[in-house]
Design a protein that fits this description.
Shape: elongated
Strand order of the largest sheet: 3-9-8-5
CATH class of the largest domain: Mainly Beta
Structural class: mainly beta
Number of domains: 2
CATH topology of the largest domain: Immunoglobulin-like
Largest sheet: 4 strands, mixed
Helix content: under 10%
Order of helices and strands: EEEEEEEHEEEEEEEHEE
C-alpha cells in the first residue's frame, strides 16, 4: 500500500501522519502488506506558529527552548536541535557556534514550517551592585527594578517563601504585601537573596526589606 500523495487538510490544524487507531497511538506503516480492507486515521495537532524570536547572550550557559512539540511529530532542520520532554531545544554548545548578530533558520515540524530568528549578543558586563534596601509600607507591595542585562533570573529566597509570594516581570520584582506582613516586625529587617545566573555561575543580590 502506497502513502497518499495528497496531504489531508483540516482548517486550523496541522496534519501529522496516518495512524492505526483513532487516538493516534500507533503510526501506520505503509510498507506492511495488507490483505484485507482496513481503516486508518489522520492525526492532527494545533499549529506551533509561523515564527519565533529569541535573544541569547554569550554569557548564558542554558539550553534554549524553542517551542513545545507533540512527541510523534516529525522534525527536519538544518540546525542541530534536540527534543526533550516534548520540547524542541538548541543546546548551549550548539548556540556557541552561531555568529554574533541575527541568525535565521527554519524547522519543519510535520507539514508546518517554523521560522526561528535568534539574535546572539556579545558577552555583557556583570551586574555589580549587589545590595539593595527597600522600605515596606502596609497595603503596598514592595517593588524593585533591577537591570540584570541578559542574565537569567532564578529565584528569590527567604525562609518559607514560595513563588506565590513574589513575581518577576521585565526587571521588576514585586513582593506581596501579605507575605511581608507575616515576616516583618517592628524590631527586625528581612534579608532576601535574589539569585541569577552569570557566566555559568550563580550570582546573588541581597535585598533588605525594612518596615
Amino acid at each position: 500500500m502506497s502513502r497518499p500523495v495528497t496531504i489531508p487538510q483540516r482548517e486550523g490544524y496541522i496534519f501529522m501522519d496516518w495512524y492505526m487507531d483513532i487516538d493516534g497511538i500507533t503510526r501506520f506503516d505503509f510498507e506492511t502488506p495488507i490483505g484485507d480492507d482496513i481503516t486508518i486515521f489522520a492525526k492532527w495537532r494545533l499549529p506551533i506558529g509561523s515564527n519565533r524570536s529569541f535573544k541569547y547572550s554569550l554569557n548564558s550557559s542554558f539550553d534554549l527552548i524553542l517551542f513545545d512539540v507533540d512527541h510523534e511529530s516529525r522534525l527536519t532542520s538544518d540546525v542541530e536541535v534536540t527534543t526533550l520532554n516534548g520540547q524542541v531545544i538548541i543546546e548551549n554548545e550548539v548556540i556557541k557556534t552561531f555568529n554574533v548578530g541575527v541568525n535565521t533558520f527554519e524547522i519543519q515540524v510535520d507539514s508546518e514550517v517554523v521560522l526561528i530568528k535568534l539574535e546572539i549578543t556579545e558577552v555583557t558586563k556583570p551586574y555589580v551592585i549587589n545590595v539593595h534596601s527597600l522600605t515596606f509600607k502596609e497595603g503596598i507591595d514592595v517593588t524593585l527594578q533591577l537591570e540584570l542585562f541578559d542574565q537569567i533570573f532564578i529565584s528569590l529566597s527567604h525562609n518559607e517563601m514560595t513563588t506565590d509570594d513574589y513575581t518577576w516581570d521585565n526587571g521588576t520584582l514585586t513582593i506581596t504585601a501579605t507575605y511581608l506582613e507575616t515576616v516583618l516586625t517592628d524590631e527586625n529587617n528581612v534579608v532576601m537573596i535574589l539569585q541569577y545566573m552569570l557566566d555559568s555561575n550563580y550570582s546573588s543580590i541581597f535585598v533588605t526589606i525594612k518596615k
